[in-house]
Write a structure and sequence with these properties.
The chain has 401 residues and is mostly helical. The protein has one domain (2-400). The protein has helices spanning 2-19, 24-38, 43-55, 57-78, 81-93, 96-107, 115-127, 133-144, 155-164, 168-189, 206-216, 218-229, 234-248, 253-262, 266-285, 287-295, 302-317, 319-332, 337-352, 360-368, 372-400.
Length: 401
């Protein structure tokens, strides 16, 4: 049980630092140091792991993508494109609640952490008068991640399908009830605070307004098409879109240079870098690989052991790291892999909404100027209900198949 106690201790350090109102990057840095101390990692080994995590392409790629989308979002805001898109969507739907729920989902089709910045710019206009900014940050972050739970444009889903061999259409079809709950629960708990009335006239020329909506969101649409249709790397797609937008947007050199400077968000980038270091240091300890042996001594079913490891492992080091470590072992003893895969991926997605190592959460907190603890507190009741639903749905699927 030593690994379990150490993991609890490390997260106690992170939570305590957040509670003491330290910045997220400071909290993650303290957690990383605590991880090295508790596991007695030699200083030289720690520096080697941290150094490799800092210069590996995955880390650099994420930092570049975040910067590019921050730059693109700020350029689009200079032309009021996201704000106009939000007003058009509100007019087309003629329902403020639906507009707030759907706009982050649309932006969430972009498989990049920077998408939460664009979603935030669209949501805050409709919510700020009626909801606390902590609630607005939760709604933005949570709905932006709905597509990530099941769409094979995301690496975690592709990895899970590759590891298990489950066809994409079966997985996507099986995940629909979970995705429905992802949309419904925040609506019932938070969005009912919003008036349905939009305060603007409903669209009288729907096709024309739909065309305008697509025009204002064309950088998002173009990036999605490049990723889906041409299987282009996210960074390359973002770079191409940004260059085209700069060339066609009639920006002055003063605007471009000012936005290049404004797009540097030190706290956001530093937190992201430290999260990547934390995850690699934690992986280097080998703790996740030892947990199944540790927990197998408990008098509970094996599927539940794997589910617990997958959930808390996703909170600690991310869902993507749990998939290759846990899914092959879990699926080996499953008579039908689909129900268990849906359970694991549902739990992993839910857990990621609570994880301080989930890059999108600090980005969202930094955008709305809220504390990570406040965002997580608002997420907890939704995740609790989703967990209950996930297990109930798992038992139902097992009875069906």
């Amino acid at each position: 049980m030593e690994d379990v106690l150490i993991i609890i201790g490390v997260f106690a350090v992170i939570v305590a630092a957040i509670w003491l109102k330290r910045r997220l990057w400071q909290s993650i840095a303290l957690g990383t140091v605590a991880l090295a101390v508790f596991y007695r990692i030699p200083i030289l080994t720690f520096l080697q792991v941290a150094g490799k995590a800092s210069v590996k392409w995955t880390t650099i790629n994420i930092l570049l993508v975040i910067y590019l989308y921050t730059f693109l979002q700020k350029l689009m805001s200079r032309r009021q494109m996201l704000q106009r898109a939000e007003r058009l969507l509100t007019g087309l739907l003629n329902n403020r609640r639906l507009s707030v729920a759907i706009s982050p989902v649309i932006i969430g089709l972009l498989p990049t952490p920077g998408a939460v910045l664009m979603a935030g710019a669209m949501v805050e206009t409709s919510c700020n008068e009626y909801m606390e900014k902590e609630d607005v940050s939760f709604v933005t972050s949570f709905y932006r991640h709905v597509p990530e739970s099941a769409l094979p444009t995301y690496s975690s889903v592709l990895l899970a399908l590759g590891v298990t061999g489950v066809p994409a259409w079966q997985f996507l079809l099986g995940m629909f009830p979970f995705m429905f709950m992802l949309m419904l629960l925040p609506y019932l708990i938070y969005l009912r605070k919003l008036p349905k009335e939009t305060g603007i006239a409903p669209s009288s020329e729907r096709m024309k307004d739909l065309g305008k909506l697509l025009y204002y969101l064309w950088p998002v649409a173009a990036t999605i098409i490049m990723i889906l249709a041409f299987q282009m790397d996210v960074l390359l797609a973002a770079a191409i879109t940004t260059v085209i937008f700069v060339l066609t947007g009639k920006f002055s050199w003063k605007e471009i240079l000012s936005t290049l400077k404004d797009a540097v968000e030190p706290n956001m980038l530093l937190s992201t870098w430290l999260i990547m270091v934390f995850k690699d240091v934690f992986t280097a300890t080998g703790a996740i690989g030892r947990l199944p042996v540790t927990l197998s001594a408990l008098p509970i079913p094996m599927f539940l052991i794997f589910a617990i490891i997958f959930f808390f492992g996703s909170v600690i080091s991310g869902q993507s790291s749990m998939i290759p470590l846990i899914l092959p072992m879990a699926m080996a003893g499953a008579a039908n892999p689909l129900p268990l895969l849906i359970l694991m991926m549902s739990l992993g997605h839910s857990a990621m909404q609570l994880s301080p190592t989930h890059i999108c959460l600090p980005i969202c907190c930094d955008y709305f100027k809220v504390k990570l603890g406040s965002l997580i507190r608002r997420t907890l009741p939704v995740v609790g209900l989703l967990t209950i639903f996930s297990f109930a749905y798992y038992f139902l699927l097992n009875m069906t198949f």
